[in-house]
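Table 4 source record.
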Amino acid sequence: MPGGMGGPPGMTQPPAIPDSLLAKSLRVFLDCQGVRRGCDRDFFLQELPYVNWVRDRFDSEIHLLITQLQAGNGGAELTVNFLGQKQYAGRRDTLVVYTLPNDADDRIRRELVRTFSLGLAPYVARTPIGGRMRLAFNGAPPAAQANPRSVKDPWNFWLYRIDGNVFATGEQLVRNTNLSGSLSAARTTEKWKINVGANYSYNERDFKVFSPRTGGGVDTTDVVVLQRSSAANALFGRTLNAHWTAGLKTSVGFSDVLNQSLAARFAPAIEYNFFDWNEATRRQLTALYTVGANRYNYQSRTIFGFDDETRFNQTLLLAVSSRQRWGNTNVSIEGQHYIDRPEQNLLTLSGFVDLRLGRGFSLNFRGSASRVRDQIYLAARGNTERDILTQRQQLATTFRYSVFAGASYTFGSIYNTVVNQRFGTLGETGRRFGFMFF
């Protein structure tokens, strides 16, 4: 609804809003971190020029917070929260946008623009620009969201997907080829969540190694590193009430990296969310417990002297996720051990925290740390120097970690909403020398 909250196609565009009037318009902060598709800030600036898009939430009157959940059809449920600040403090409005898995990004961003326009209208109406606004109806009412009780679906709400990928890189001495494919089927209703799938991965790395020859010259050795893996899995979840979910997880596959010619698991599961699942877009605090049987057949005899074995283990996962005005958090801690030998266990802490601490200042932390005591699959023959350098198989370790920390501070104009895409593509040279634009 550029310049005026909508109108019939082909209608002459209204005159530009004077700067003196725009200076008194609604100040809006766009917050759509974590939204994978459709969050195009430049497009929103162009399509909704009657508000001031500010760069910091502390300067805004409306904090436009968008959260995302995956829908049962493979698309997404985008929840658009209009959070009032300053003179609108304490006021909150919510609208929801549903997308399909094959929707073009342009369709999603236009649907978001329409939703923004509707949600911002009551606030814009209270500004001097309100006298220039109008609201139009496009004719047919929107279709109601489908659910298993209200429609007849020839697919019975099943969604299927097939993926295949080929990736290759090469130089004179190194070549890498990766093939992968997957099949999946899913059915999601208010009561049931069913996911089944299978995948295969093939990775081959070829190296040419030169070594000096006695008496002169060099010898060339071709080194081939092959890693393959495949898995089929299924998840069945049944909603019990607003907090409890029961289910079953099964899987079967193999992995060269883990020295497994067969790895099969059958595990019942129970999950509890301390918050109501209706609040899932804003906050979650969940505890997930599984206990099950595992069958392993190994490619090489293990350090414990087994060619195959059946083991029982249990897992407890605690996870917290929050999306608030001050930032995002997603932290989990997971512990598991084999029931007959509790000393064979794994404990992992992982997550990220993104904090907006003040005007233009933010901190973010990402990482994971694991105490590893459950590598029962390690081959007794040990690892050669080649295995270690190429990491063809999992190496023995007692810990793993990854850490990232960052800080940013932005200052300057809070009102500049000019869009200029010139010099937007600088090619390989631009990437190599690190040109950076806001």
